[in-house]
Design brief:
Number of strands: 11
CATH architecture of the largest domain: Beta Complex
Shape: elongated
Strand content: 25-35%
Strand order of the largest sheet: 4-3-11-8-10-9
Number of helices: 3
CATH topology of the largest domain: Ferric Hydroxamate Uptake Protein, Chain A, domain 1
Helix content: 25-40%
Length: about 170
């Protein structure tokens, strides 16, 4: 009888511990979502994205095909393409406009004109960021075919040898 009572108390304590662990095992991240604590693949990727080495290229699809080569050793890439555009704004005087979500409406001489159905469109050489839907489009840059981005500006991967082409598309 004592053994049965002991096992019941032990089971109850274990259940309470399990329930309490459910509440302390999660925390709010900076996006307001609940995320697991500790080292995750996402946190490692985020840390690595802030220490990119090498160069990438930004090409504006304006009439001059303006090109910028960026030394990634000098850029914190935690905001994706917006990090690079901020860097170019500070160092090269590049102007750009976007809303709070990162939706670009103007970059240098590339501007959207919603009345005419002209919108800014992003193309990338980074395979994991490319649009894989039936609506994907391409643009030629030198000898490369760049594919429209399937992610937003804040989520674009900035890596060594990446080429991001900022152009327009008519809808």
């Amino acid at each position: 009888m004592k053994k049965t009572k002991f096992l019941r108390v032990l089971a109850l304590l274990m259940a309470l511990c399990l329930v309490s662990l459910l509440f302390v095992g999660c925390e709010k991240n900076d996006k307001g979502d609940t995320a697991e604590t500790g080292t995750t693949a996402e946190s490692l990727t985020e840390a690595a994205s802030q220490n990119v080495k090498g160069y990438c290229k930004i090409v504006l699809g304006d009439t001059n095909k303006t090109e910028y080569e960026i030394n990634l050793d000098l850029v914190k890439t935690d905001k994706g393409l917006l990090s690079v555009l901020d860097y170019l704004k500070e160092t090269k005087g590049l102007t750009y406009a976007c809303d709070a979500s990162g939706f670009l409406t103007e970059v240098g001489g590339v501007k959207q004109d919603t009345a005419a159905g002209v919108y800014i469109y992003l193309y990338t050489s980074v395979v994991k960021d490319q649009d894989v839907s039936q609506y994907a489009t391409t643009v030629k840059y030198n000898d490369l075919t760049l594919v429209s981005a399937g992610v937003g500006t804040k989520d674009m991967t900035i890596e060594k040898d990446a080429i991001i082409y900022i152009g327009t598309i008519v809808w």
